[in-house]
Specification:
15 helices, single chain, TIM Barrel, 367 residues, globular, alpha/beta, binds flavin mononucleotide, 12 strands, eight-stranded parallel β-sheet, two-stranded antiparallel sheet
C-alpha cells in the first residue's frame, strides 16, 4: 500500500484481495452499468481554465459544511456493509475521517452500529444516513439513536424506494457473510419477522422490503417534525427536485446517482450538478458524489458549485487494502492531488475557484 500513488492503484489491489461476493456487491452498478462508467468518464467533459501569476505560495483547503469546519472538501459517503472489506469496517473509516478532519456518513445498512461508530471515532463529524420505513417507529428509533450518539446531521436517501437491479448480485444470490450482521438492527432493535414482512432469506432484501416506497415530499416535513438535526437529501439529480428539497426545508442536497446502483441511464452526478447548483446554490448547500477518483475531479465539482464532494467505493478499496490507514491514504492522495490542481490553476483557497474556471468542453468547440 505504501507504494500506491493513486486511487486506481488501490482499486486494482482491492479487486485482487476481495472475495467475489463482496467485490461484486461493492463494484457493481445497475443494469448494463453505462451510468457507472459514465460517472467517471464524464469528468473529462469538463475542463479547468487556469489563472496564472496569482500568489499560491500558501494554500488553505478547508471548507465549512453545515456550520462545521472540515480540513478538506472531501468526505465519506454512506456505503453499506464495510466489514466485508476489513474487520474494523465502518469504525476504521470513521477513524480515518476523524484523523483527516472530515465528515463520515454512516449507512443504515452498516455492519457497525451507530453506537459502536460513535465510540470508535468520538471526535469525527458524523452524519447518519437514513431510509424511511413503512413502520415509522423504526425510523424514529434510528433518528433518536443517531441524535443521542452525537451525529450532526441526517442524510435521507431519496433515490431508493427499493434497491436497484444489480445483475452480479442477482447471479451470486448476494448474502451478507454469516459472521457479519446488520449492526443497527440487533438485540432490542432487531426487526421482528412480522416487521420484515416477506422473508426472502437475504438480510438485505428483507430490509429493502421494509422501505416505504410510498414516500412523498410531505414525508420530508414529517421527518423534520421529529428531529432538530439538519436534513440532507441524498440522491437528487434534477433542478426541480432540488427546488422541492429547498421548499421542504432541507439544509442541503447531495447530487448523487447512488454510485450508479439504482437505474442505468441516469446521468453522471457531475453532469447533473450544474443545473442543481444554478437552481438552489443560493438557498442550500450542495454536495456531490459519484466517480470521484482524482484531485482534478474535486476541483471541477467545486467550480461547478458544490461545497463538498464525497467518496463511496474509493473508501472501500482503501479499507480492503489497509483498514483505517488505507482510508487515510486514499483521502491523503486526493488531498495532495486537489492541492496541486488548486495551486497550479492559480487558486490558494476554495473561494478562489470561480465558476468561469470550470467549463463544459463545448466551450472550446464554439471558439
Ligand atoms: C457498496 C456500496 C454500498 C452503498 N450503500 C449505500 C447505502 O447504504 N446508503 C446510501 O445512501 N448509499 C449507498 N451507496 C451509495 C454511496 O453512498 C455513494 O452515493 C456512491 O457510492 C458514490 O459513488 P462512488 O462509489 O463512485 O464514489 C452505496 C454504494 C456502494 C458502492
Amino acid at each position: 500500500m505504501d507504494r500506491f500513488v493513486s486511487v486506481d492503484e488501490f482499486q486494482e489491489e482491492a479487486f485482487k484481495l476481495l472475495p467475489k461476493n463482496a467485490l461484486d456487491y461493492y463494484k457493481s452498478g445497475a443494469g448494463r452499468q453505462e451510468t457507472l462508467r459514465n460517472n467517471r468518464s464524464a469528468f473529462s467533459k469538463f475542463k479547468i481554465r487556469p489563472k496564472c501569476l496569482r500568489d499560491v505560495s500558501k494554500t488553505d483547503l478547508s471548507a465549512t459544511v453545515l456550520g462545521e469546519k472540515v480540513s478538506i472538501p472531501v468526505g465519506i459517503s454512506p456505503s453499506a456493509m464495510q466489514r466485508m472489506a476489513h474487520p474494523d469496517g465502518e469504525c476504521a473509516s470513521a477513524r480515518a475521517a476523524q484523523g483527516m478532519g472530515t465528515i463520515f456518513i454512516l449507512s443504515t445498512i452498516a455492519t457497525s452500529s451507530i453506537e459502536e461508530v460513535a465510540e470508535a471515532a468520538p471526535e469525527a463529524i458524523k452524519w447518519f444516513q437514513l431510509y424511511i420505513y413503512k413502520d415509522r417507529h423504526v425510523t424514529r428509533s434510528l433518528v433518536k439513536r443517531a441524535e443521542d450518539a452525537g451525529f450532526k446531521a441526517l442524510v435521507l436517501t431519496v433515490d431508493t424506494p427499493m434497491f436497484g437491479l444489480r445483475l452480479a448480485d442477482i447471479k451470486n444470490k448476494f448474502q451478507l457473510p454469516s459472521h457479519l450482521k446488520l449492526a443497527n438492527f440487533q438485540g432490542k432493535y432487531a426487526l421482528t419477522a412480522n416487521k420484515v414482512g416477506k422473508n426472502t432469506g437475504s438480510a438485505m432484501n428483507d430490509l429493502g422490503a421494509l422501505f416505504d416506497a410510498s414516500l412523498t415530499w410531505d414525508d420530508i416535513r414529517w421527518l423534520k417534525s421529529i428531529t432538530k438535526l439538519p436534513i440532507v437529501l441524498k440522491g437528487i439529480l434534477t433542478a426541480d427536485d432540488a427546488i422541492s428539497a429547498a421548499d421542504a426545508g432541507a439544509s442541503a442536497v447531495m447530487v448523487s446517482n447512488h454510485g450508479a446502483r439504482q437505474v442505468d441511464g441516469w446521468p453522471a452526478s457531475i453532469e447533473a450538478l450544474p443545473e442543481i447548483t444554478k437552481a438552489v446554490g443560493h438557498r442550500l448547500e450542495v454536495y456531490v458524489d459519484g466517480g470521484f477518483s482524482d484531485g482534478t475531479d474535486i476541483f471541477k465539482a467545486l467550480g461547478l458549485g458544490a461545497r463538498m464532494v464525497f467518496l463511496g467505493r474509493p473508501v472501500l478499496w482503501g479499507l480492503a487494502c489497509g483498514g483505517e490507514e488505507g482510508v487515510k491514504k486514499i483521502l491523503t492522495i486526493l488531498k495532495i492531488e486537489f492541492e496541486y490542481a488548486l495551486a497550479i490553476s492559480g487558486c490558494s483557497q476554495i473561494s478562489d475557484i470561480k465558476p468561469s474556471m470550470v467549463v463544459h468542453e463545448s466551450y472550446y468547440a464554439r471558439l
